[in-house]
Amino acid sequence: MIRKLLFVGVCLAGVAAMAFAGGAREEARPDYPMELEMWIGLGGDLGQRIEEMAADFNSSQDKYIINVVEQGDYEEAMTSAIAAYRAGNQPHILQVYEVGTGTFMGSRQVIKPVYELMAEAGMPMNKADYLSQVTSYYSDLEGNMLSFPFNSSTPIFYYNVEAFREAGLDPHDPPSTWPEVAEAAKKLMATGNYSAGFTFQWPSWTQMENFSAWHNLPLGTKANGMLGWDSELVFNDEVRVRHLQQLADWQKEGVFQYGGRRGDATPLFTSGDVPMYIASSAAYAGIARTADFEFSAGFLPYWPDVAGAPQNSIIGGGSLWVMGGHSDAEYRGIAEFFAYLSSAEVQAEWHQFSGYLPVTYAAWELSREQGFYDKIPIHNTAIAQITLNPPTDHSRGLRFGMFPQIRNVILDGMEAALTGEMTAQRALDQAVSRGNALLREFERTIQ
Amino acid sequence: MMGKRVIFKEKGLPYLLIAPEVILVMAFFIFPAAQALLQSVFREDAFGITRVFVGLENFQRVLSEPLYVRAIWTTLGFALCVAASTMAIALFLSALSTGIGKRAIVYRTVIIAPYAVAPLVAGVMWFFLFSPSVGLISYGLRMVGIRWNHTIIPGQAFFLVVLAASWQRIAYNFLFYLGGMQSIPDSLIESAAIDGASPAVRFWKITFPLLSPTTFFLVIMNFIYTFFETFPVIHQLTQGGPSNATATMVYRIYRDGFRGLDFGGSAAQSVILMAFVVTVVALQFRFAERKVVY
Fold it and tell me: pTM score, two decimals?
């Protein structure tokens, strides 16, 4: 009896093992139509729109099928892809958020640079067609694009037009400097209708990374890490310390209200509770859907006594990386998909639907011809802001290893100052030294 | 040694019967634990391309970080608050639910119901209730003059995660206390009542001491619960913030390992957590168990 049971058990295990091995080997045959996996970190309307774009591409030809898989948020998509890479079954295309850029550039054998992919497929990219302020974040020093800048946005200054009118402020002339913001906030608060004057989302992105670029100040040495992994963080200087201390003081006076580490502050603005809001240009659609008042947007505020300001803002959002370890035939298909995504029509449609910045001049031009910016001038504001001046070493982009963690370190520092746990100087000193320890750790892991 | 021993003639059957359990323990405990132990002495890049043996460097790096030491204290404080509040409330509720006749069944069902809610769902619920911008409770608090913003006030954030973690756990504690109380013979309580002891005296002199094995068991289970299983609540509500006020040890492991891709440091942290939990539980057995009357 027992023998029989054992025998059956062993047989079952054997069958299961064979089935398993068979399943894993199946896809090795190059065969058309070829299926290509694309993992994305966006959901909801945007995720669905990406799936539609892939479906349009799939029906435009019959050789390749792009399968879009939603993997939760950006961090989750990146973590899953890394786990998949370690297990040897990585996707073909992966959407990575801007802070993950350093992680991927640090491991060149993991990725297939996009410029190389396009050149090998006989469809080389013409750098002059692309908005360099968008692509430089994802390019090497020669300006070659390493990843495809699919969805980029930049923070802008939203304000409640009705609130401005009511408080006697000019709704066509939003505050352009921080002292003006504070002054406007106090006038708005005087009406007694608001719980605070202004708030912002993604504090590190809007108040440290973009704040630095906008004031032409380095976040780190070596052109913010673009010239080498031995970059050192330097954001604890007088201007950044003063700004953070000022935010903490404004918070005490009620001029400013903190809204969390992520995009959680949006309801504060859309409920009409806080009339000024620094947020991503891509937040436009969501704000327009929920706010029942008229709103507009201007450039980010700056400190008028800082010589370099305003410079230009930098981007955030995601780019598409092509993972290494796939066949030439598969890369050919990815190149065709990217060429499709770069076409002016597809780009312009995506830009107008999502509020992400256009990647090519052709898409920008087409949107203008279609009258998009007359309808929604806010989108032109965002583009005008990132192209305000030719980028400098401090405003081209950021390239730090372990940047997801460094961003948390910056947020820890900002929160420590805002909670009053320590002075802004001490909080940023500590953040710089913790961040530098992470940079050195990263430098050692990639050797 | 004196007990009855059953001798199996067949050698294979016992092994076959325990095999599923052994396989499960190996697959879900021994194997991952060994992996963590191994990983904690290596330094590795995110993609696993380079892997360098670094000895105890990861441990040294983690333990010399002031914020990690703070996470240990946060974890202990969190465990104490959750254990104390859930057990006190559960004990109170179960004492009330004995001796109220047929209605008890409704009452007990209501108390136990939160246990059926998935932790992540519970987290979402508290998130909406206390959201500084749209929350019902935070709105009510503002009405009475309390400025609620757990995204920047550390004390409020800590209170919120304790509240959310405790809420679900009360049901579990309630069940055990209820069972414990039902196993106390009525005759003891009745004779005390005849001797003229008030309900309060009867509770503290008879019921509570007889519940000591349950209490001891629950202290340990609640500690283990807060050490490991409160992750979804923290992740949903505060992500460890503001300024690390709610970053517990298990949350740090997740944040550094899965978000930060620092596998060596994260593995070292999980080994430290394992040692920490064993120490805390061993101390509890050593010092608290003496006071338990079985």
Answer: 0.83
